[in-house]
Amino acid sequence: MNLRTAFQTGLRAARANLLPGLLLQALMLCFLAAYLLHDGTYAFLTRVGEVRQEMSYGFSLATYIVSGALFPELLRIVFFQKGRLLRANLWNFLTAAPLWAGLGMLVDFFYRCQNDWFGTGNAWQIVAAKVLVDQFLYSPFLANPITNAYLAFRASGLNAATAREVFSWNFFVEKMVPTQIAGWAVWIPGVCLVYFMPPLLQLPTAVLIQCFWVLLLTTLHERESGE
């Protein structure tokens, strides 16, 4: 696969995710409206922010394991396996948990850095700067490579020989480029909402968006597998 084909693959994936992405963005707008206009939601999220401050990196570790590793397997068991727990579910969870735990703490650290670099307000200039750094530096050069490399090792049964493939040009154009393009279609609007929120609510907001996205991805993946 050449670079042009990789971009075309990514664009096809983005188009395939268009309707789920629009649904996710509608849910994000509802969440923002509830935070701004509903006193109960505001009070609840304020308490969530206090818990996040108390737990520090423990909050990001636990919530990302739940949203990225546990939640998808629960969805598969309840909706696609008729409540039957399979050995594959346990394997999927145990091998996904380290990835999401690490990514959760990495995201937490990155959000703290963004607030130090650009400030903690939600003026459009601050939000725009954070979104640009997030989606065009952090995501393509750190989060995306880590995620794709780990998933490749997982798919190979944690075979160390996969390292050669991960650092190859083919891996870059076949995995990383399409994933990044498809991800931009969803996460650029998502991180706009994240960086609009106060610092203590940025990580909980990202976790909430990730839960919605995992729900959509799991449903689409299982439906396509069935077909």
What does this entry look like structurally?
There is one protein chain. This protein is mainly α and 227 residues long. The protein is built from nine helices and no strands. It has a domain at 3-55 and 102-205. Helix 1 crosses helix 8 (169-196), helix 4 packs parallel to helix 9 (199-226) and helix 6 runs antiparallel to helix 8. It is globular, with a radius of gyration of 18 Å. 23% of the residues are buried. The model has no long low-confidence stretch (mean pLDDT 84).
Structure summary:
The chain is an all-alpha fold.
**First-last Cα distance:** 26 Å
Largest sheet composition: none
- The best one-word shape is globular
Q: What structural category characterises the helix and strand content?
A: mainly alpha
Q: Would you list the SSEs in sequence order as H and E? A: HHHHHHHHH
What's the total helix number? 9
Low-confidence parts: none
**Number of E-state strands:** 0
User: In percent, how much strand structure appears in the residues?
Assistant: under 5%
Helix content: over 70%
Q: Radius of gyration from the CA trace? A: 18 Å
